[in-house]
Design a protein that fits this description.
Layout (H helix, E strand, L loop, with lengths): L7 E2 L4 E3 L2 E3 L3 E3 L10 H10 L4 E5 L2 H4 L14 H10 L3 E5 L30 H18 L4
Parallel strand pairs: 4-5, 5-6
Antiparallel strand pairs: 1-2, 2-3
Family: Belongs to the glycosyl hydrolase 35 family.
Protein name: Beta-galactosidase-1-like protein 2
Pfam family, one: Glyco_hydro_35
Length: 146
């Protein structure tokens, strides 16, 4: 989906490519659905009139051990973004680092707690350094899709 002018908000509405645009969104989290069913689920979203997919990026799954990253199979974020684009869906990506209260530690990896001085979700350098390392990996993967 190439565009000359991205999403904009004025006092009355959103516009995309200078045309009025209404975000009709729904969530399907790629890591909760077997990859073989991704297309089926996204097509069902489209059939319901949804034009925008929202999804989290779970840090705890993508970096289960410090410095060990996994973006394969059900965790292939780039493949999921490509699929959404090929089906004409826009994506609101929610990379965290904290994604939601329904996940242990909000999706933060448990290895963070090995640091006895850890202060989660603060400017504590042990936390921010780990977040920056994770975001460095994620940003490289998502930049081509922005």
């Amino acid at each position: 989906m190439k565009r000359a002018e991205g999403l904009r908000a004025n006092s009355l509405q959103f516009t995309l490519e200078k045309n009025p645009f209404r975000i009709l969104g729904g969530s399907v989290h790629y890591f909760r659905v077997p990859r073989a069913y991704w297309e089926d689920r996204l097509l069902k979203m489209k059939a319901c009139g949804i034009n925008t997919l929202t999804t989290y990026v779970p840090w705890n799954l993508h970096e289960p051990e410090r410095g060990v990253f996994d973006f394969e199979d059900e965790l292939d974020l780039e493949a999921y973004l490509r699929l959404a684009a090929s089906l004409g869906l826009w994506v609101i990506l929610r990379p965290g680092p904290y994604i939601c209260a329904e996940w242990d530690l909000g999706g933060l990896p448990s290895w963070l707690l090995r640091d006895q001085n850890m202060k989660l979700r603060t400017t504590y350098s042990g936390f921010t350094d780990a977040v920056n390392s994770f975001f460095d990996k994620v940003i490289k993967k998502i930049t081509p899709y922005q």
